[in-house]
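Hi there,

I know you've been waiting on this one. I reran it after we fixed the sequence typo, so this is the corrected version. Both the input and the resulting structure follow.
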Amino acid sequence: MARRNKLEILGGILNICRGEGSSKTKIVYQVNLNFKNAGQYLDWLISHGYLVKEERFYKTTSSGNELMQNINNINSTINDDLEGALPGDEKMNAI
């Protein structure tokens, strides 16, 4: 299994926190992070205005939704470009 980059982790957190929001525990388990790392990502997202914390739930802001869409577009573009450029066995190793 390939390592995830920070953008994939940030996008995952923002996606989970859309709508009703999410607790830190749910984020940890769904994004597959430990509590320390999740806390660092959550702090960064809050400090930059991409998430807000309301009581015990984290919710994606409108800026966070924009960031999530941009991350998805970047990942999609990169993955599409790699699929056309790499032979079959190399595709899995590059991602």
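Quick highlight: The mean pLDDT is 88.

Best,
R. S.
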